[in-house]
Target: Cytochrome c family protein
Amino acid sequence: MDSFEFNKIAGGVLATLMMTMLLGIFSGMVFGPHIPAKPGYELPSAPAQETATNAPEAPAEPLPVLLAKADPAKGQALAKACGACHNFEKGAGPKVGPPLYGVVGRKVASMDGFSYSDALKAKGGTWTMDEINKFITNPKADVAGTKMGFAGEQSPEKRADIIDYLHTLSDNPVPMPKP
Ligand code: HEC
Model:
């Protein structure tokens, strides 16, 4: 084989190598490794989980819906916490707080013989189930300056049970709200 023929073969080999290289680069551009934004395995469920934990809590059900499911017997048991300061029996007088017989539908701060805070006297209106619900969620946040020293009941279901029980403490209970 003379040098000319060798050059031809060498040229051919080189050209093939070049083509292979170019193909490699080109396919690397098209099918290159996908680098995840965060190191680690990419699990398809990961982003969904993230949104689930970061999502705001589902809004609480409206009070009338909760009241429809409430249980006054459970409420009576839960109201033992209120009983430290309140009487529930008909005709009973005040303790640390005013008596609660007939409180649903009663005018706010209206029991004779109990010395209400100026804050509660200034609130006005009547104790609807909705107003009681707001008050016992966080008394000091609802009526700034109230002297009701109760931290609040955080569970909407438990509050509904308590209100359902308070609703029974009446000679003439107000109608239940329709869900
Ligand atoms: C640590 C004592 C204490 C506890 C516990 C307590 N209360 Fe009271 N509550 C009071 C006082 C004191 C007042 C009067 C507040 C004022 O004048 O600012 C009051 C006022 C009220 C009033 C307004 C009554 C009116 O005549 O205007 C309602 C309704 C009420 N409480 C419901 C409840 C319920 C329901 C619970 C239990 C979930 C409860 N309270 C637990 C001390 C308490």
Observations:
- The chain has two domains: 3-54, 63-168.
- The chain has a mean pLDDT of 87.
